[in-house]
RNA sequence: GGGCCCAUAGCUCAGUCAGGCAGAGCGACUGGCUUUUAACCAGUCGGCCUAGGGUUCAAAUCCCUAUGGGCCCGCCA
């Protein structure tokens, strides 16, 4: 097979042949909960950024928070009476829903920035309101206003939509009602760097500065940002990519108005949530990124994005398939002789700032439930199972697993170790009772720590009449045990019944090593005597 | 109406840029570890690469067309 090049390296290759220095940019409007789909954008950008660095480049990586955009409407998660008055105002200028953040925008932005940290993504974060307020857009605003007609013509040609007579590439913030989407531009003064307007909504007329007095409309602002930041590559969702969409118009505005070459587009597909369809804030199909990071180890989430080409749909299902995803990642990470391509995916999934426990997620699912979620017990079990790790890292994964079990795990993956002998123990047969007693003796008699294989072996030795456990069973049963009852299935079942109150569970040897030996001895003896 | 993306094993997908033996993981099945349980190891099964045409010595790959699915063209990635 010919060597496969990872998509991020393909993009990086193309970028380096086109540009001497590359600037990756990405931007999201923090108008609502930022979800896992948005994370694809920054992770896609991060992949290309890493690939460029691996090629010896020194690229820049910006994350632009479009917090100067207006609040479009009162979203379902907002209170009508609180936010109706703020519709149309820039989200950087309206109050935070919880009162803990500087602004509405920061309320959603801050958790997202924290999530990027968790995932090992470190772009230079810029807020659009700060760029405007610092005057970075002044030149672009002047250029746009002077070329208003040419831009309007491009927009009409590209999008096929008629541009309104009173359209302007600049949206002033009305000083009367503070809205950014209602005032009509009536003129501008290039030397004074001001724009004058009439606001039909509140009747105000006035003059605002090009520095912080308003913003360019999206289709013009995007190419302006390319020029101002020198963007050479940018991932964006397919909504911008369609013909007549904002990338199309952006190309022409960039070249014809700003005299600047547009960035290399990296179009990515949407993440579908299970069977529910596309992730979308408005339809309510949404898993916020913090919800996701509560459950998925960061490297596994990176892995999901890295292994899939951007233009492919990703089906994300936080139930059983999530377990498989994490498992797949762990297997690949720990693979002895991975291919170059596999190594590449793993290395892009890792980040030096992100640590993930070596304990397989699946095993943690068992450990966690054995320990009943108690962190000290989990640490102890992990040690006993041979994982010598920083408790902090173990606890992080335990936290993930606990929430996963609580929120998404399918019922067959769940079990609970009963605090006392479960009532189901009443149904144990005499042979099973004899087995439990004999088994407890074996555990007690063990002169060393029993490993998973040892435990499995002891159970299977019941089939051998000469084995110590068989002899003890006969003793306890008070006579010879009928051959048809010597069935390991019976015995495993007894073990699960005594601990869980159900006839099956995680592979016994590995399951039992998660427990303290003396606890098992007591429990098995009790269960063997249990009569309601 | 205009456009974009996707379609490869039961499932999830690599492989398409740059044409050269049809691939991986999971699942299933079989076996191994003195051993039916959600661990481990080895192996097997599994595909008209959605369909039809074209280019080529050679096509999953490039070019047309069709079908199915997803989506965009009102500032939701």
In CATH terms, the superfamily of the largest domain is HUPs
Radius of gyration: 31 Å
What's the arrangement of strands in the largest beta sheet? 1-2-3
Structural class, judged by helices and strands?
A: mainly alpha
State the helix count.
23
Q: Uncertain segments of ≥5 residues (pLDDT<50)?
A: 279-285
Named CATH architecture of the largest domain: 3-Layer(aba) Sandwich
- CATH fold name of the largest domain: Rossmann fold
Please tell me the overall pLDDT: 86
CATH class bucket of the largest domain? Alpha Beta
Strand content: 5-15%
N- and C-termini, Cα separation: 66 Å
Query: What spatial form do the alpha-carbon principal axes imply?
Result: elongated
Helix content estimate: 40-55%
Overall strand count = 12
Features:
3-stranded antiparallel β-sheet, 5 domains, RNA-binding, 10% strand, elongated, 532 residues, 47% helix, mainly alpha, Rossmann fold, 23 helices, 3-stranded parallel β-sheet
Explain how this protein is built.
- The protein is mainly alpha-helical.
- The chain folds into 5 domains: 7-136 and 218-271, Rossmann fold; 170-216; 289-349, no CATH class; 361-410, no CATH class; 423-529, Arc Repressor Mutant, subunit A (Orthogonal Bundle), CATH 1.10.10.
- 47% of the residues lie in helices and 10% in strands.
- It has helices at 7-18, 36-54, 80-83, 104-118, 128-133, 138-146, 148-159, 218-229, 238-241, 246-257, 289-295, 298-307, 320-333, 340-349, 361-370, 375-384, 391-407, 430-445, 452-460, 468-477, 488-500, 508-512, 517-529, and strands at residues 23-28, 60-65, 124-127, 170-172, 184-189, 194-198, 205-209, 214-216, 233-237, 264-268, 271-273, 314-316.
- The strands form 5 sheets. The chain has a 3-stranded parallel β-sheet with strand order 1-2-3. A 3-stranded antiparallel β-sheet has the order 5-6-7, with no helix packed on it.
- α1 crosses α2.
- The longest helix has 19 residues, at 36-54.
- It is elongated.
- It binds one RNA strand of 77 nucleotides through α2, α8, β9, α9 and α13.
């Amino acid at each position: 097979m010919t060597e496969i090049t990872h998509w991020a390296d393909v993009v990086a290759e193309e970028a380096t042949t086109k540009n001497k220095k590359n600037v990756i940019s990405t931007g999201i409007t923090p108008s609502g909960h930022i979800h896992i789909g948005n994370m694809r954008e920054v992770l896609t950008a991060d992949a290309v950024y890493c690939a460029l660095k691996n090629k010896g480049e020194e690229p820049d990586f910006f994350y632009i928070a479009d917090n100067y955009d207006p609040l479009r409407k009162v979203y379902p998660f907002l209170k009508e009476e609180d936010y109706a008055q703020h519709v149309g105002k820039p989200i950087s200028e309206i109050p935070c829903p919880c009162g803990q953040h500087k602004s509405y925008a920061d309320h959603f932005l801050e958790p997202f920035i924290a999530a990027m940290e968790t995932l090992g993504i470190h772009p230079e974060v810029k807020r659009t309101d700060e760029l405007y307020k610092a005057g970075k857009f002044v030149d672009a605003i002047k250029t746009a206003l002077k070329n208003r007609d040419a831009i309007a013509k491009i927009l009409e040609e590209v999008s096929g939509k008629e541009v309104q007579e009173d359209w302007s590439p600049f949206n002033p913030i009305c000083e009367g009602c503070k809205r950014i989407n209602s005032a009509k531009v009536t003129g501008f003064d290039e030397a004074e760097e001001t724009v004058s307007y009439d606001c039909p909504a509140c009747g105000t007329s006035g003059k605002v500065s090009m520095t912080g007095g308003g913003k360019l409309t999206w289709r013009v602002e995007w190419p302006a940002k390319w020029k101002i930041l020198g963007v050479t590559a940018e991932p964006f969702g397919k909504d911008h990519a369609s013909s007549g969409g904002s990338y199309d118009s952006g190309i022409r505005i960039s070249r014809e108005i700003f005299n600047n070459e547009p960035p290399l587009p990296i179009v990515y597909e949407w993440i579908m949530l299970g069977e529910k369809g596309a992730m979308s804030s408005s339809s309510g199909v949404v898993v916020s990124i913090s919800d996701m990071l509560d459950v998925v180890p960061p490297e596994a989430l990176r892995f999901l994005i890295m292994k899939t080409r951007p233009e492919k749909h990703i089906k994300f299902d936080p139930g059983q398939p999530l377990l498989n995803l994490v498992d797949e990642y762990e297997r690949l990470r720990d693979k002895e002789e991975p291919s170059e391509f596999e190594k590449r995916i793993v290395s892009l999934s890792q980040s030096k700032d992100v640590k993930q426990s070596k304990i397989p997620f699946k095993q943690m699912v068992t450990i966690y439930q054995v320990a009943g979620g108690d962190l000290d017990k989990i640490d102890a079990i992990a040690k006993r199972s041979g994982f010598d790790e920083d408790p902090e890292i173990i606890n992080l994964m335990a936290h993930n697993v606990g929430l996963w079990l609580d929120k998404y795990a399918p019922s067959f993956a769940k079990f609970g170790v009963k605090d006392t002998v479960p009532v189901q123990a009443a149904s144990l047969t005499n042979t099973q009772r004899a087995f439990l007693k004999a088994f407890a003796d074996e555990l007690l008699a063990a002169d060393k720590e029993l490993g998973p294989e040892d435990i499995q072996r002891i159970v299977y030795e019941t089939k051998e009449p000469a084995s110590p456990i068989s002899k003890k069973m006969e003793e306890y049963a008070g006579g010879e045990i009928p051959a048809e009852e010597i069935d390991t299935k019976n015995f495993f079942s007894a073990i699960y019944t005594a601990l869980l109150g159900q006839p099956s569970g995680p592979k016994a040897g590995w399951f039992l090593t998660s427990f303290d030996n003396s606890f098992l001895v007591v429990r098995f003896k009790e269960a063997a005597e249990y009569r309601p």
